What does this fold into?
Amino acid sequence: MDLHHFQPQILGSRFQDFRNRRLHLVFVINDFPPGFLFHPFGIQYFAHLDIRLQTDGTFYREQLGDGFFTYCVEDEAGKLDINALSNTTGIILRNLIVQLGYPQEIADMVVDSILDWKDIDELHRLNGAESDYYQTLPNPCKAKNASFDTLEELLLVKGVTPELLYGNGKQKGLAAFLTVFAKTNKIQINAAPRELLASIPGMTDDLMENIMTARTMGQIGKIRDLQNVIANKCECQPKIDHL
Ligand SMILES: [Ca+2]
It folds into this structure.
């Protein structure tokens, strides 16, 4: 099984703060070992594993008795923070939505509407929506005009469907790539999922593969590391920040 392309049936997930990072642990059902349901989920379990994990959503398989399960760790710093989203970084989100298979018109509507939902004014963008639109819905409401508290709030925003947010079992949804916890408009290059890297303007297939390869060898920690990656010289710092 190619775990990198495995489409999980999510069993459970939780957020866990670890060394000043907020991690998202996702467990999925496979050939599930009896009794594991009673195992406490959490970083404490992984602390017993003598492995170094990628925190970019890469799936791992773990044998447990006669069964096995798969899991991934997502570092929230590797995701796009919707509260820090701007007209500039909105391009990344537009590209991501298109990459997920949606038309450009949907991408434009969703990104403009997210920006309108959280900005303080009632002036909608070209493809966006403010309170005048939300007041016409069967369950009228107003644009929040403030930051998102959770990703689930996105379901209130014009154009955002449950399938777009959570995926459909075959395709990941936006929730795998967005966060409200990063508190920055920057994306941690060591933790960004492949799809998000691919959505950055100017990203090429070659550069992305160089980054992915470098990350398996160590952390990209300095500008010089990144220069090496761009030059396809994977001389990164040995990974020391592991679980
Ligand atoms: Ca607004």
Observations:
- Residues 204-243 form one domain.
- The longest helix spans residues 104-118.
- The mean pLDDT is 80.
